């Protein structure tokens, strides 16, 4: 079980990516103008840091926003933590090429910052630990050998980590909307990015909620502001 948890925790905490200075990547807007990734990141970062410090008294709120310039990473963005505890937000060049305006890019970065502020990584690690423990104990009680117990613990850790993932995404959409708007961007327009993503539907233990649910919470939060 310790091995399963170590592997899972590493996947949450130590993203291993090739990063590049964000200023290298301009983003085309629908009206033909161009805006730099660096400008969007520089406007989102202080707002995210302010929200972080307001909600987490002792957390590291010194966000680093970076670009993963590996060509085959696809359309993706994620939040991780380096070994010193600093929150890192990574956006792939594929995602940068896929957004249609600065609002979409701002919303994506704000969403990832919200994951850190809401402390989703430690929550997932804790849920994975509990899932591994329960599954491992049940396998042991059922007479499984060491390999069977280890496999059960790994599966339990994965199930545990996914248990609250949809709630986490909606929480990040909510706070990400606030961050995006306070940075001067249109979060509702930014959430239009979901229209071009495959809809995950409402699958059992799926990692992301339906796109319609995510857009609804963005509109609701924006209207409240």
Identify the notable features of this structure and list them briefly:
225 residues; alpha+beta; 4-stranded mixed beta sheet; two-stranded antiparallel ribbon; 9 helices; 6 strands; 57% helix; disordered N terminus
Would you kindly provide a written description of the structure presented here, covering whatever features stand out?
With 225 residues, the protein is α+β, with helices and mostly antiparallel strands. It has one domain. It has nine helices and six strands. The strands form two sheets. Strands 1-4-6-5 form a four-stranded mixed β-sheet. It has a two-stranded antiparallel ribbon with strand order 2-3. The radius of gyration is 19 Å and the shape is globular.
How do the helices and strands line up, and which of them pair or pack?
Layout: H1 2-13, E1 19-20, E2 26-28, E3 34-36, H2 37-55, E4 64-68, E5 77-81, E6 87-92, H3 93-98, H4 102-117, H5 120-141, H6 146-162, H7 165-182, H8 187-190, H9 211-224
Mean pLDDT over the full residue set:
78
**How much helicity do the residues have?**
55-70%
Number of strands: 6
- Radius of gyration (CA) equals 19 Å
Summary, kept brief:
This protein has helices spanning 2-13, 37-55, 93-98, 102-117, 120-141, 146-162, 165-182, 187-190, 211-224, and strands at residues 19-20, 26-28, 34-36, 64-68, 77-81, 87-92. With 225 residues, it is of the alpha+beta class. Strand 2 (26-28) and strand 3 (34-36) form a beta hairpin.
